[in-house]
């Protein structure tokens, strides 16, 4: 849907399904409808590429191949997947172990992540014990926001709102009739809002690195950052953390805005 304002700027709304969620896009720019539709298609293609590369549940993805074979022998990774896994391993330490991409491994414990070995020399990965699996699901949509941000910058789109399933949001520039973009009563301006949690007692999906069990409780934790990938990591880590760890993490990342809410059901 496209609407041209009297000031000569155009507002384009589009949506599509990707990464197992709905992606809503609002672009506000002086570019033509055709130019803005090109940007939407560019974003769609980028998300399809990320899903093909890093979808834990797709047996044809590059990540699934890694999980099947990296214990047998080192696997050379694409440059992008290598950088993603490298960043996630780095933030395991920076989140006091609360963000762990190996929690879906067989016989998981808090030391399982030490079995993942990256080689910077040839961009390969190796698992030093069987049953290890890397799952980027608690990171991928945040990383996608950063990919989309790069596309919007490349295409010189200064005002945009990208909403991936209401849990991963990118807000650039301003709303057509105001400053920034208001999402769930949170004003965003050149920022990302990422949310992790359970929306009901039955729908649990985040595993605690402490005991390898699903985190209980119907609540959500949202984080506002300038980087969607880091925001996704932090919201996941804060939700999986215990009380003392959460307090420590909120001190370490005091420059980020954190919102904790209880879900009513």
TrEMBL record:
Gene3D superfamilies: ApbE-like domains. The keyword Methyltransferase does not apply. GO terms for molecular function: metal ion binding; transferase activity. Its cofactor is Mg(2+). Pfam families: ApbE (PF02424). It comes from the Bacteria. Its EC number is 2.7.1.180. Keywords: FAD, Flavoprotein, Magnesium, Metal-binding, Transferase. It is an enzyme of class 2 (transferase). It catalyses: L-threonyl-[protein] + FAD = FMN-L-threonyl-[protein] + AMP + H(+). PANTHER family: FAD:PROTEIN FMN TRANSFERASE, THIAMINE BIOSYNTHESIS LIPOPROTEIN APBE. This is FAD:protein FMN transferase. It comes from Bacteroides xylanisolvens.
